[in-house]
Write a structure and sequence with these properties.
- The structure is a single chain.
- The protein is flat and about 85 Å long.
- The chain has 2 domains: 229 residues, Aldolase class I (TIM Barrel, Alpha-Beta Barrel); 28 residues, no CATH class.
- Helix content is 52%, strand content 12%.
- The chain is an alpha/beta fold.
Length: 306
């Protein structure tokens, strides 16, 4: 599995690069904002982006900001023309659907994806929340899709109904098993109270009848990712899956187990991937047990001074 770092902070990108584990970078407008704020005043964003591109010998996603097809295509061309010459590694992130309110255009993102891919500009189709969106993006020619694992978990957590509307801090553990248990319990209660007919016919949508604690049948973002992987494998799409919106190192492991092409991971989560309490304790025990003779071999007779 390739590892991308999900940040625009140059110091994090350089650090991950120095470990030999970095295959690419994803940014978005929120990550650029954070990076520029932490870099302080007087930073040239153009030079900053060029520095990122030079640091990584792998794809770097830069996102468009318009919501119309024409706007996104123009911005993609501006970004590509300005920056791809630096290290030939620019990928344009295009939201799969830019609509924000009912009635907005649902198809500007997919149309822009088609046009850009025909022009040979690589697209990372972002804000993917369903396998159907991923299927459409692949068919429209996206080189990458970015399903948002953590945000689906947040959405389901709010549907568990214990604390609806809570903003869960990034990095907190998502109890998928609890979501499954809540769903089963509510179903049992509904059956017991003979409310099933009401639920089934409430909105004439059988998939949505059991909205509690799941999203269209998925109990976690990782479930949604797995479904995309199945569909892509089944039809042999070339589009690479970038597991995005990763919150914990456990999610990274689940991505690797299912054979996802890429995970784009926030830097603190990449750091966590290296730690275990028993590794630290083992290290301490080895250091405590080193005998002077062994130190002398390794460090020479004057090791005390070393
Ligand atoms: C990367 O492609 C996404 O923009 C990013 O992973 C979103 O992560 P978040 O849900 O933690 O903001």
């Amino acid at each position: 599995m390739k590892i991308f770092v999900d940040t625009a902070k140059i110091e994090e990108i350089k650090e991950a690069e120095s470990w030999g584990i970095l295959d690419g970078v994803t940014t978005n407008p929120s990550l650029i904002k954070k990076a520029v704020e932490s870099a302080g005043e007087g930073v040239s964003l153009e030079e900053y982006i060029k520095d990122i591109l030079r640091t990584v010998d792998g794809p770097v996603s830069l996102e468009v900001i318009s919501t119309t097809m024409e706007g996104m295509i123009t911005e993609a061309e501006v970004l590509y023309d300005k920056f791809n010459g630096i290290n030939n590694n620019v990928v344009i992130k295009v939201p799969v659907n830019t609509s924000m309110e009912p009635g907005d255009d649902d198809f500007a993102g997919i149309k822009a994806t088609k046009v850009l891919s025909e022009k040979g500009i690589p697209v990372n189709s972002t804000l993917i929340m369903t396998p159907n969106q991923a299927l459409m993006a692949a068919k429209a020619g996206a080189d990458y899709v970015s399903p948002f694992v953590g945000r689906i978990d947040d959405h389901i957590r709010n549907r568990i109904g214990l604390k609806g509307g809570v903003d869960y801090p990034k990095g907190t553990y998502y109890p998928e098993e609890l979501a499954v248990r809540v769903w089963e319990k509510k179903l049992e209660t509904a059956i017991h109270e003979q409310k099933i007919d009401d639920i089934v016919y409430r909105d004439h949508n059988i998939m949505r009848m059991f909205d509690w604690a799941n999203d269209d049948g998925f109990f976690s973002g990782v479930d949604m990712l797995w479904s995309i992987k199945q569909i892509y494998d089944r039809y042999g799409f070339d589009t690479e899956i970038i597991a995005a919106s990763i919150r914990t190192d456990r999610q990274v492991r689940q991505c690797a187990e299912m054979g996802v092409d890429i995970a784009t991971i926030p830097f603190p989560v990449i750091e966590n991937m290296m730690t275990h309490i028993k590794t630290s304790q083992g290290m301490k025990a080895f250091c405590d047990d080193v005998i002077p003779e062994y130190k002398a071999i390794l460090w020479g007779k004057d090791f005390e001074k070393a």
